[in-house]
């Protein structure tokens, strides 16, 4: 007979927990004060979490690969009166509830990233590789991981990469502000020599500055880049994005990329600590969805997607696109973009999508995003459907967020942690964050990740808007059928779209870090598998 944990003595924390659970039960009923009840519940939780915050920040670094059991975090239920349980939750007992959260069968795939026996220690360094990364957090993470592999191929000493400070976000973060620098250096010690700075005598020395060719293989780096060591001691990579092919690289190079991306690039301890705390606070509501809601100003301006926006908002986005010099495409047809599935789902469309999938209004949803364009005015429909709508600003106090709030990459890292650890992850758009989180969830055991078929959904939603189709059972059946095989089950990485040529051919491939199978995932029993990374 299983042992039951002792109920903690009733006290201030217990009373706060009981009140909080009662407020959440109100939120589940669909009453008019749902949103207020949910937010007050969070306020109570944050106000009473000082001790937890101190514990998280002073303990060992948070490891994404070791999530805590939901039951361990939901201590509130030990003191909440039984009659306060959510009536909506009772309706979903059994198979119906289980199917909402159950991941697709993983077929027992586990990380498989250990070097082969033929993998030698790093050769004598021929020179130093400086890397200037570009893009947002996850574009930089992918670029850094690729440059680790490039440094290995070039027998180079990698200098800690310089993060992008000139892109749309104007983030002044340094590498050590976002990532655990010491861990990065030590974890790659058997692969690549990494140093924090150039030797003083080389700081002002002439450098060979190169824009490495996109989607290149080993031959390019050995034949065209390696000879540069004959003339210079320092090579500077002016950009880092997509400079390495997705496929057809040596197995040990592919495994090194995975070790860099999924293991070496751990976030800085303060970010890990607060990320863990946000996960615990979300889990106190029960199983939750992390929704990467790509509805920020930069995304809409770049993509030219203006569906559902006012004329004034559309003109503002067009002006931003026109004035951003490194965005090459200026004239975009928003209706054509949307019809092809190239636009992020709107908050309203996301609400319709989640409802059609069968998630009840009491489902906790974490919004992993920056500032939503248009603010609350564009969030009303989604908030009405799912009142327990949370983000880092609601889950954490101003004081807790203050060290990170002015830095886009650090705030995005918090969202990344909560998204990787969620019970279900759903991106509204397939950008860099969505691909990185999806890949990390595959790496950690193929956790449930639902990838919306935006092109198909837009057609269905347009039929609803025109009155040809009603929200309800028929719409739900159509959407469930479309997404039955889009829930993160194991499969080999997709190659290029048939008929594409040149750079478009590489661009159409599934990104390496989005799906590291077969290179970095294998079934137990392989000599290079690491079952301990998957819980």
Automatic annotation (TrEMBL):
<feature type="region of interest" description="Disordered">
    <location>
        <begin position="484"/>
        <end position="508"/>
    </location>
</feature>
<dbReference type="GO" id="GO:0016757">
    <property type="term" value="F:glycosyltransferase activity"/>
</dbReference>
<keyword id="KW-0294">Fucose metabolism</keyword>
<feature type="compositionally biased region" description="Basic residues">
    <location>
        <begin position="484"/>
        <end position="495"/>
    </location>
</feature>
<dbReference type="GO" id="GO:0006004">
    <property type="term" value="P:fucose metabolic process"/>
</dbReference>
<dbReference type="GO" id="GO:0016020">
    <property type="term" value="C:membrane"/>
</dbReference>
<comment type="pathway">
    <text>Glycan metabolism.</text>
</comment>
<keyword id="KW-0472">Membrane</keyword>
<keyword id="KW-0735">Signal-anchor</keyword>
<keyword id="KW-1133">Transmembrane helix</keyword>
<keyword id="KW-0328">Glycosyltransferase</keyword>
<keyword id="KW-0325">Glycoprotein</keyword>
<feature type="region of interest" description="Disordered">
    <location>
        <begin position="71"/>
        <end position="91"/>
    </location>
</feature>
<comment type="similarity">
    <text>Belongs to the glycosyltransferase GT106 family.</text>
</comment>
<keyword id="KW-0119">Carbohydrate metabolism</keyword>
<keyword id="KW-0812">Transmembrane</keyword>
<dbReference type="InterPro" id="IPR019378">
    <property type="entry name" value="GDP-Fuc_O-FucTrfase"/>
</dbReference>
<dbReference type="Pfam" id="PF10250">
    <property type="entry name" value="O-FucT"/>
</dbReference>
<protein>
    <recommendedName>
        <fullName>O-fucosyltransferase family protein</fullName>
    </recommendedName>
</protein>
<keyword id="KW-0808">Transferase</keyword>
<dbReference type="InterPro" id="IPR024709">
    <property type="entry name" value="FucosylTrfase_pln"/>
</dbReference>
């Amino acid at each position: 007979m299983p042992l039951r944990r002792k109920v903690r003595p009733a006290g201030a924390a217990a009373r706060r927990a009981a009140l909080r659970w009662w407020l959440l039960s109100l939120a589940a009923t669909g009453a008019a004060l749902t949103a207020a009840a949910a937010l007050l519940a969070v306020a109570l939780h944050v106000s009473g979490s000082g001790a937890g915050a101190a514990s998280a920040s002073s303990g060992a670094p948070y490891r994404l690969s070791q999530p805590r059991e939901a039951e361990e975090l939901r201590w509130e239920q030990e003191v909440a009166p039984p009659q306060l349980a959510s009536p909506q939750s009772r309706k979903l007992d059994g198979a119906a509830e289980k199917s909402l959260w159950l991941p697709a069968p993983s077929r027992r795939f586990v990380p498989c990233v250990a070097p082969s026996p033929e993998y030698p220690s790093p050769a004598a360094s021929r020179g130093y590789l400086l890397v200037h990364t570009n893009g947002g957090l996850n574009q930089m993470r992918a670029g850094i991981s690729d440059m680790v592999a490039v440094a290995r191929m070039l027998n180079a000493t990698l200098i800690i990469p310089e993060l992008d400070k000139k892109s749309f976000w104007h983030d002044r973060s340094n590498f050590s502000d976002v990532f655990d620098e010491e861990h990065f250096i030590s974890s790659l010690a058997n692969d690549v020599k990494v140093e924090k700075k150039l030797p003083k005598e080389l700081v002002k020395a002439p450098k060979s500055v190169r824009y490495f060719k996109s989607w290149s293989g080993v031959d390019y780096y050995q034949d065209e880049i390696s000879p540069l060591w004959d003339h210079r001691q320092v090579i500077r990579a002016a950009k880092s994005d997509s400079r390495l092919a997705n496929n057809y690289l040596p197995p040990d190079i592919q495994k090194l990329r995975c070790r860099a991306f999924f293991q070496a690039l751990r976030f800085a301890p303060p970010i890990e600590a607060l990320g863990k705390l946000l996960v615990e606070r979300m889990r106190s509501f029960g199983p939750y969805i992390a929704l990467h809601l790509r509805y920020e100003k930069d995304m809409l301006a770049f993509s030219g997607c203006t569906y559902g926006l006012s004329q004034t908002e559309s003109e503002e986005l067009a002006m931003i696109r026109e004035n951003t010099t490194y965005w090459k495409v200026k004239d975009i047809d928003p209706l054509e973009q949307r019809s092809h599935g190239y636009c992020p789902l709107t908050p309203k469309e996301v609400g319709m999508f989640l409802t059609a999938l069968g998630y009840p209004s009491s489902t906790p949803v974490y919004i992993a995003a920056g500032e939503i364009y248009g603010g609350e005015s564009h969030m009303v429909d989604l908030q009405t459907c799912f009142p327990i709508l949370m983000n880092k600003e609601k889950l954490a106090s101003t004081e807790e967020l203050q060290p990170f709030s002015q830095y886009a990459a650090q705030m995005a890292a918090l969202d990344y942690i909560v998204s990787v650890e969620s019970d279900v992850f759903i991106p509204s758009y397939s950008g860099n964050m969505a691909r990185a989180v999806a890949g990390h969830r595959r790496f950690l055991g193929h956790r449930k990740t639902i990838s919306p078929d935006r092109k198909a959904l837009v057609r269905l939603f347009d039929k609803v808007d025109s009155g040809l189709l009603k929200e309800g059972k028929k719409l739900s059946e159509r959407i469930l059928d479309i997404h039955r095989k889009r829930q993160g089950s194991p499969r080999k990485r997709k190659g290029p779209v048939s008929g594409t040529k040149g750079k478009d051919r590489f661009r159409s491939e599934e990104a390496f870090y989005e799906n590291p199978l077969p290179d970095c995932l294998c079934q137990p029993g392989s000599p290079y598998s690491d079952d301990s990374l998957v819980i």
